[in-house]
Design brief:
It is built from 13 helices and two strands; from the N terminus they run αααααββαααααααα. The protein has a two-stranded antiparallel ribbon with strand order 1-2. Strand 1 and strand 2 form a beta hairpin. The protein is globular and about 50 Å long. The structure holds geranylgeranyl diphosphate (GRG). The site of geranylgeranyl diphosphate has 19 residues, from helix 5, helix 9, helix 10 and helix 11. Belongs to the FPP/GGPP synthase family.
């Protein structure tokens, strides 16, 4: 524990996030390029949304989980929490795919038929800038491009094909009938009626937690983690991260300024879709958020025999049901 505590105390999460985001941004920049004059506007629309400055939370979580699994088995020998070059090569195609799926979901979420938002990250949304037809197709193309990224670029001499298929399976499941699309559909259905806490939790699980869970678990799968033990534990861990993430996002929608949010801020609780702040009030939502965060901290540092970045008694994940 002493060695692990010492390493973590020197570790700056803030710097790590910036460093990893930089790597992801570089890879995203190269991931989609125009191939002929005819596709120029279309590709521009995809690149506009993909490179518009998101936090890259999902790609970084994927890289971190892959790094953790590979360090545990001694395959990644870089010091501390940082990935070596081989880990980056293994995780990056999936990291990029995750950001493409996330971007697709934001483009479609902003459309007039759904949330009808004019601004995203402080800039005009894709349909405002390029037209609704182009935005719909740009989202569709990003979705299929994401699977092509994984299939074409994951190094097959380093990751068994069965594991690549497992990553594709997880991504496919978290987008469609059991994931993002289902969560968004249910979210829309509750625009005019109030959801119960259970229904709201279901919506959050599908529309937000599923992709975050996929990011962590896909990274671990690529890194060689045991599918029946470690990946199961990570499923519970990352689902809780996803739930806390959505509650925090809804709190920020009310408390942050327009400038901080890059979109219309100060949502009216009465007119908003059902959210934790709307159902439980702002303080109630903050309590839920901090309860999940406490649980995450407990899970992170508890128990042995779980995934540990440095072996021994380092950061670990204990089996726990999502809140
Ligand atoms: C078309 C198959 C298909 C699916 C799309 C529209 C849709 C279905 C889903 C929308 C889901 C959605 C917008 C969920 C919100 C998730 C969320 C908390 C987004 C904010 O994520 P951040 O904070 O954003 O990571 P940045 O801007 O940093 O990338």
């Amino acid at each position: 524990r002493d060695a692990a505590t010492e390493t973590t105390s020197k570790f700056s999460l803030e710097k790590y996030l910036v460093d990893m985001k930089t790597k992801v941004d570089e890879a995203l920049e190269k991931s989609i390029v125009s191939e002929c004059p005819e596709d120029k506007r279309f590709v521009e629309a995809m690149r506009y949304s993909l490179l518009a400055g998101g936090k890259r939370v999902r790609p970084v979580m994927c890289i971190a989980a892959c790094t953790m699994a590979r360090k545990r088995s001694g395959k990644d020998t870089a010091p501390g929490f940082y990935p070596d070059e081989e880990t980056l090569k293994i995780a990056m195609p999936t990291a990029i795919a995750l950001e493409m799926v996330h971007t697709m979901s934001l483009i479609h979420d902003d459309l007039p038929a759904l949330d009808n938002d004019p601004l995203r990250r402080g800039k005009p949304t894709c349909h405002v800038k390029f037209g609704e037809d182009c935005a719909i197709l740009a989202g569709d193309a990003l979705l299929s491009e994401s699977f092509a990224q994984i299939a074409n670029h994951t190094p097959q001499d380093k990751v068994p094909a069965t594991r690549i298929v497992e990553v594709v399976r997880r991504l496919a499941e978290c987008v469609g009938r059991l994931g993002l699309a289902a969560g968004e559909m249910m979210d829309l259905e509750y625009e005019d009626k109030e959801a119960t806490l259970d229904e709201l939790r279901w919506i959050h699980l599908k529309k937000t937690a599923a992709l975050l869970q996929c990011a962590v678990c896909a990274g671990a799968v690529l890194g060689g983690a045991d599918l029946e033990t470690d990946v199961r534990k990570l499923e519970a861990y990352s689902t809780n991260i996803g739930l806390a993430f959505q509650v925090q996002d809804d709190i920020l929608d009310i408390t942050a300024s327009s400038e901080e949010l890059g979109k219309t801020a100060g949502k009216d609780l009465e007119q908003d879709k059902t959210t934790y702040p709307k159902l439980m009030g702002l303080d109630g939502a903050k309590q839920v958020d901090s309860r999940v965060c406490d649980l995450l901290a407990e899970m992170q540092w508890s128990g042995s025999g779980a995934l540990a970045a440095h072996g021994g008694d380092g950061p670990a994940v204990a089996m726990q049901e999502p809140v």
